[in-house]
Specification:
The complex is a heterodimer of chains A (about 300) and B (about 325). Chain A is built from twelve helices and eight strands. Chain A has about 300 residues and is α/β, with parallel strands linked by helices. In chain A, helix 10 packs parallel to helix 11. Chain A is globular and about 55 Å long. Chain B is an alpha/beta fold and about 325 residues long. Chain B has a five-stranded parallel sheet with strand order 10-9-8-11-12, with helices on both faces. The chains are: A alpha/beta (about 300), B alpha/beta (about 325). The interface between A and B is small, with 7 and 10 residues.
Chain lengths: ~300, ~325
């Protein structure tokens, strides 16, 4: 927990120059990454993925299959890393935990009435505790966007702090749902609130709202992390989620992390991709680089 | 009469430069023929161009010299379009092919002119364009009929109804005939899409103009994006990728070139691609159109369906 003297007035969070941010983000897409550096980058991307299934139609079977995929991404290609974590609803944490036993892959669970977050606080706390008791290593919470828009920053702050407390040893990722925050100024402000309230990660989106993760939005959040680090000396992780399905885009994100935060963040302890279909595209690109032949999706496992 | 003279005098020679001094030739504006991928006219990703030349030594146009990455993008487009296109009602596919013919009919003059610039005589050019329109109509008609011709009900002993039906192969890469810039291209494209496949075509290297103009007419024919993708460029550079790509299910090659055919067969073994060679086909004759061109790009699916067999109970008396 941050010393309360250090907590700033969130209404004074820096304002964002939207055009500037968009232009700057665009430049990260102009780096040329080829051959070995591309393969290494792609392997790093795989190792940073939170393989996710968050659907109403999820079943234990689906979760088990996803866990198997997390451990065996594509056995035809030797030397691949595993993904960082598997992300599921609280009801499936136990199943995932059991399936991933001994693999070193973490289990992340969404909580706090994901994705809407419209529930009383005690319900959210109970859900968080349930997920942690079932064995979740990480908890992905959503902030109360309605309260945030109404200007009740203290409510949002206290809620994050309370969930953080309920997490115990589990790491907390705070989903801002940037698609519903609309303006860049508000995204920056919400990032600041989340970090000062105790977030271990800040995350862009649930994946249920469009637009989800974009480069400019992630840039703003990375800059917030950088400023927070300079002020408090505390590292916070970043997780863009939703809409990142191509390897090329994923590499652009890595370039951005490296140039905004530095190599200290280029590990899955501090940077994650929330994605499901990204893994297969990365695998196809790695296969293309090693064999020289363009690949087809139907030779890779269903995700 | 008077009006025209007035107009003419207003365009005075030197002031606005609309009329030129005798003997001074107007600098011709060469069109850049853009490639057609996913329903969009794009420049090649490689930024390379070439200028095909006709027999008189005239430069025909600036034409994209496509790279393997353009092909890769085209395959992605074709694969994404396949689900929608193959599940459309056959009748609707026929309607769209018919619409292509209509649009082509309206732009006959442009095609004739382009063919002439590419060393085809006027009579032959006119014949080729008309034949092309007719060929589209021909395959438009077959869209909902080849299934009946090529399906079978198979005699089996047992309580089963056993039948075989043709299903589209998938994404087809086609190297169009080099010598028939328009008719050849349409003769291999039409049966592929009539059968529910999506395709990537490589236009004739020396005579690529009609292919791209055709793309412009296709674009106005209700054809969903990605069903037909047309690339231009060097055959020798691109052919390897046409045969190798794991997401391509069949490749059509129309040249009588044993060495290349051998290479294609070897590459196609990677994902057991269907490899089809149409060498020595005279596309302007009856030989150039047949439902078997559709069937070449179909897979036969056989289904066993349990039924009650009245004969098996034995006589009742």
């Amino acid at each position: 927990m941050i010393n309360s003297n250090l907590i700033p007035d969130f209404t004074l969070s820096p304002r964002i120059d939207q055009t500037g941010a968009e232009e700057r983000a665009l430049r990260f897409t102009r780096r040329s990454i080829k051959k070995e550096s591309k393969i290494n980058g792609l392997k790093l991307v795989l190792n940073m993925i939170d393989l996710t299934t968050l659907e109403g139609k999820d079943t234990e079977g689906k979760v088990k299959q996803l866990c198997y995929k997390a451990m065996h991404l594509h056995d035809a290609l030797p030397g691949l890393p595993t993904v960082a974590a598997v992300c599921v609803y609280p009801l499936f944490v136990k199943t995932a935990k059991k399936a991933l036993e001994g693999s070193g892959i973490k289990v992340a669970s969404v909580a706090t009435a994901f994705p809407g977050g419209q529930a009383p606080r005690d319900v959210k706390i109970r859900e968080t505790k349930f997920a942690v008791n079932e064995g979740a290593d990480e908890v992905d919470m959503v902030i109360s966007r309605g309260r945030f828009h109404a200007g009740e920053y203290n409510y949002v702050f206290d809620e994050i702090a309370a969930v953080k407390e309920a997490c115990g040893p589990a790491r907390l990722k705070v989903i801002l749902e940037t698609g519903e925050l609309v303006s860049f100024d508000k995204i920056r402000r919400a990032s600041d609130i989340a970090m000062y309230a105790g977030a271990d990660f800040i995350k862009t989106s649930t994946g249920k709202i469009q637009p989800a993760a974009t480069l400019p939005v992630t840039l703003i959040m990375l800059e917030a992390i950088r400023d927070f680090y300079y002020k408090t000396g505390k590292k916070v992780g970043m997780k863009p989620a939703g809409g990142i399905s191509k390897s090329k885009t994923a590499l652009h994100y890595l370039v951005m992390v490296k140039e905004v935060l530095g190599e200290g963040w280029l590990t899955n302890e501090w940077f994650r991709f929330g994605a499901s279909s990204l893994a297969n595209d990365v695998l196809m690109q790695i296969a293309k680089e090693t064999t020289g032949i363009y690949q087809a999706a139907n030779y890779f496992s269903i995700d | 009469m008077e009006k025209t003279t007035v107009k003419k005098s207003s365009l005075s020679v030197s002031e606005n430069g609309l009329e030129r001094k005798k003997g001074k030739k107007r600098l011709e504006v060469l069109k850049t023929y853009k490639i057609y991928i996913n329903g969009q006219f794009l420049r090649t990703e490689s930024g390379r161009y070439y200028q095909p030349v006709n027999a008189a030594g005239e430069k025909l146009a600036n034409v994209c010299l496509c790279s393997r990455k353009d092909f890769r993008d085209a395959v992605v487009a074709a694969r994404s379009a396949f689900g929608g296109w193959s599940s459309r009602p056959a009748l609707n596919r026929g309607q769209i092919l018919y619409r292509m013919a209509e649009m082509l009919e309206g732009r006959k003059a442009q095609f004739v002119e382009e063919l002439q610039r590419q060393d085809v005589s006027k009579t032959k050019a006119e014949k080729e364009v008309l034949l092309t329109v007719d060929r589209l109509i021909y395959y438009a008609g077959w869209c909902d009929k080849y299934q009946q011709i090529f399906s079978t009900v198979n005699p089996v002993s047992g309580s089963y109804f056993n039948f075989s039906v043709p299903e589209p192969t998938g994404v087809v890469s086609i190297i169009a005939p080099q010598d028939y810039p328009l008719l050849g291209l349409v003769s291999v494209m039409a049966p592929a899409i009539a059968g529910g496949n999506t395709c990537i075509l490589l236009a004739s290297e020396k005579k690529p103009l009609c292919a791209i103009t055709l793309a412009e007419t296709l674009h106005a024919s209700d054809l969903p994006p990605g069903v037909v993708n047309i690339l231009t460029g060097k055959l020798s550079e691109l052919i390897k990728w046409f045969a190798e790509h794991m997401d391509v299910n069949a490749t059509v090659f129309c040249e009588n070139d044993v060495e290349t055919q051998k290479m294609l067969k070897e590459k196609s073994a990677l994902n057991v691609k269907r490899m089809i060679f149409y060498d020595n086909i005279k596309w302007e004759t009856e030989q150039g159109q047949s439902p078997y061109f559709i069937f070449d790009l179909q897979e036969t699916k056989t289904t066993w369906h349990p039924i009650e067999n009245i004969g098996f109970g034995g006589g009742a008396y």
